[in-house]
Design brief:
Elements (H helix, E strand, L loop, with lengths): L3 E5 L4 E7 L6 E8 L2 E7 L1 H19 L28 E13 L4 E8 L10 E2 L8 E2 L1 E8 H16 L27
Parallel strand pairs: 1-9, 4-5
Antiparallel strand pairs: 2-3, 3-4, 5-6, 6-9, 7-8
Length: about 190
């Protein structure tokens, strides 16, 4: 079975957003090109790592003498996006793995998202080819982000990740609205 690729070469919009209350949020990576919108579900930590790694790649490219890709140091004001996710939000798949790269020929950050694979699941998100040592995903998402868009994506993603539950000033654990059991500094369980 051929892999379905949700590809976005020059997307109009790429964001990470959430649905739900802090403590029970579901994170989504969403891309839009014209009227086509594709969303995939991912974990909070995957979102944070993706944003930090994109910033690292951009900083590394920016440090090259002469900055040939014109990578901005900060998010360009015209690319700041605080709008909610496009509705309805329906995940094509849950992300299991992400890959990240740099395409110097187009000066774009390349993000690939692959579905989560549960080997015990009868409805696998992969095509098992018995003649091959590797499993092929049934679908994937590929994003090619220009440098300004990538910088804006990373900044927004880190804001969304940081907008969750407040942290306890004593133990540093997230506090739930229903209450918080705190070990406090120096207390041990």
């Amino acid at each position: 079975m051929p892999t379905i690729v949700h590809g976005f070469d020059w997307p109009d919009r790429v964001v990470v957003g959430t649905v739900g209350r802090p403590g029970a949020r579901t994170f989504y990576l969403q891309a839009r090109d014209g009227r086509r919108v594709v969303s995939v579900a991912l974990e909070k930590e995957q979102s944070a790592v993706l944003a930090r790694k994109i910033d690292e790649i951009l900083d590394e490219v920016r440090s090259v003498e002469g900055n040939p890709a014109s990578v901005p140091e900060t998010t360009p004001d015209e690319l700041v996006d605080h709008a909610p996710l496009d509705q309805p939000v329906e995940a094509e798949f849950r992300v299991g793995a992400l890959s990240l790269g740099w395409d110097p020929s187009t000066a774009q950050v390349v993000v690939e998202a692959y579905p989560l694979v549960d080997p015990g699941d009868d409805d696998l998100d992969v095509d098992l080819d018995l003649d091959s040592d590797e499993a092929e995903p049934v679908e994937m998402m590929t994003l090619r982000l220009p440098v300004g868009t990538a910088r804006a994506f990373a900044a927004r993603t880190l804001e969304v990740v940081g907008a969750g539950r407040a942290l306890c000033p004593l133990c540093g654990a997230p506090m739930d609205p229903e209450g918080h059991v705190c070990a406090g500094p120096g207390d041990s369980w």
